[in-house]
């Protein structure tokens, strides 16, 4: 892949795609189908975040058979397995090669501003002027660490999923993992298996079993239509877009990983971290309520799967309905943890991610720094986004969700370019 060269002139192109991950490459494929000239600008390498911003042992949460992009899908011998990071990188890189995507690597976008008839895109390797832009840089550019982290004693090293690679990075003492989404439970499990005592601070979370009635839970999400539910059909869309990722892990054993599994293994379960004051980490009560709500939502979803299986007459093709033990709250969870006595040697902030739009000089962000958009159509003419949570469907952020979202967003972009107003 060639990088942009700075020859003192502004290159002109119809569309700039920012980001060469699976979303940016899917967009490129449909732009080519619409005969729209474009470039895909990538700050690092193809699949850069998968290469350099993931911990060593991470596997996809989605089974291999769900790894598909436009005109390209998994062709290995383990469709029910879960790709390692190396396999994901190979999968996406091979797609870029086969699709001949016009990717320009090693090129960082430093500023985007609106001009008459389009946008000026300033990069570290020259400027590009375009009529339309697709932001496909993802929703996980920066770790979202709460402000209370600033009160943690300086003697305790802190990590995020971007800086943590494996347990060897951590001191040989206790570890506080904050956050119980997919990332939090996976890191708590891995670090505990390394022999370090682990305490897990649990706030709002989404509990799911890895398998249900003999099938991967994401098979049920796909087959029953839940994953294809459109954003326009969802009540309280803003809240759904903020939900943490479900407590899942991809392992050859297809194991479930939730609070019960961690507690049984010896991980200490604490409430939500609410403050750090005078060297003390303070945790809220109410674990019973948190667990009851997560269990209720899980059981409602599984009941919906059962209803779909019955109505679709596929009850006999899957196992019998299952019931799962309620999440067990500890009899007396600590509400205070001394961060000064040497028991806790490090903290891992598994408290979510946020996108980075520091380069976007267009007034399209809300008061919390999120893009204002309607299904990926951003609140500025000719500006689009892909890869954000529940962008057009519940599956939008997954590799499996790239094709449908990219097809529709690029279709809207092509229609916009065809209107006389876009050329004025």
Helix-strand blueprint:
Layout: E1 11-18, H1 22-33, E2 38-41, H2 48-52, E3 68-69, E4 72-73, H3 85-99, E5 103-104, E6 109-115, E7 118-123, E8 126-135, E9 142-143, E10 158-159, E11 174-178, H4 182-193, E12 198-201, E13 211-212, E14 215-216, H5 217-223, H6 237-242, H7 259-265, E15 268-270, E16 273-277, E17 280-283, H8 287-311, E18 336-338, E19 344-349, E20 353-354, E21 360-361, E22 373-374, E23 377-378, E24 383-385, H9 402-418
Helix pairs in contact: 1-9
Number of strands: 24
| Broad CATH class of the largest domain | Alpha Beta
The residue-averaged pLDDT reads 95
Structural class: alpha/beta
Oligomer: single chain
Main β-sheet description: 8 strands, mixed
What is the CATH architecture term of the largest domain?
Answer: 3-Layer(bba) Sandwich
